[in-house]
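Following up on my earlier thread - several people asked me to post the actual chain instead of describing it. Fair enough. Here it is, all 162 residues.
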Amino acid sequence: MKMKITLALVFVLCLTLSAFAQSDMKKEDKMSKKMTPDQMLMNQEQMAWNAIREKRWDDFGKMLADNYQGFQSDGIHNKSSEMEGIKQMTLNSVTLSDMKVTWIDKNVAMVTSMVKTDGTMPDGTMGMYTARTATIWKKSGKNWRIVYHTDMEMKPAALMTK
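Reply from S.P.:
Thanks for posting it. Predicted structure:
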């Protein structure tokens, strides 16, 4: 008799825990569905920088459109030359702030931000790098891809006048 009661209690406990787990999963699904398009693009921007910092080159490469164009201090880059350049960087940290999304149309938006990095750049310089960035994202099918990116280094005097 004690065994039947114990089994019944264990069964009820398992059902209760299962219901709580499903409830938590539903909350997570609702939260991801509640993410605004602006939040989603800012999240994509953060994921792109994290992929570079973590040296996940394939993940970052998938974020770039085939017709990608970048404008950096060392020149204009296509997808191939951009990938070559970032593979020469080592970023120990990346911090994005002051992010804003400007919509060009329903399938194209620009994300601007202030980025602070610490690491080694392709030219061999080491240390902190602070820049204003602009990334244009375009929706292609169900995915958003980077079609254009630029950044401009902010010198200490420029940062103080902000």
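The CA atoms of residues 69 and 126 lie 25 Å apart. That should answer part of your original question.
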